Amino acid sequence: MSLLNRSSLRELTSSHLDLILSWRNQPFIRSVMYQDEEITFEQHRNWFAGIQENHTKQVKVFYFDDQPMGVVQISVDEQNKRAEWGFYIGEPQAPRGIGKIMGYLAIEYIFHQLSVQKLCAEVLSINAKSIQYHKKLGFQVEGILKEHILKDNRSIDVILLSLFRKDWNERRVEILKQIEGRII
């Protein structure tokens, strides 16, 4: 069976809240986020309520073999046909390469269901793995916000990346072949 057929993006519901909070509070996730303090359940519940009220934001839970593995958050600027995304694989035992499948599904959804022209990302410069991940999906570096945030008394740069729909449409078949060539 195709790896993509074993995967899906589903709407975030209140039934996901405990799991998502446990993922988000893992040190390996927190360390590469803007906000790296542990989140309380009350803060998490308020975040969920805000998502429910804001039509420009969506959160999807990524499933593989009917098991939740990660999260994709999307903010859409409809007027400018632009979106920003953030994501993580939260499941520590997730199969290797699962992030590329999640990225593929999310990008397809963003460009072809939400009809945006440009997808933007902000990645902390200390997160080399995410920067490389974005580049493998076709993102280009657009700029650097120098010493943009403070973490552990260190100034950290933020890398600005983007992917245009026209460029994705040229790369998507190649990326799909890479995904389908994997054995998980």
From TrEMBL:
Residues 7-166 form the N-acetyltransferase domain. Coiled coil: none annotated. It comes from the Bacteria. InterPro entries: Acyl_CoA_acyltransferase, GNAT_dom, PseH. This is N-acetyltransferase domain-containing protein. It comes from Lederbergia ruris.
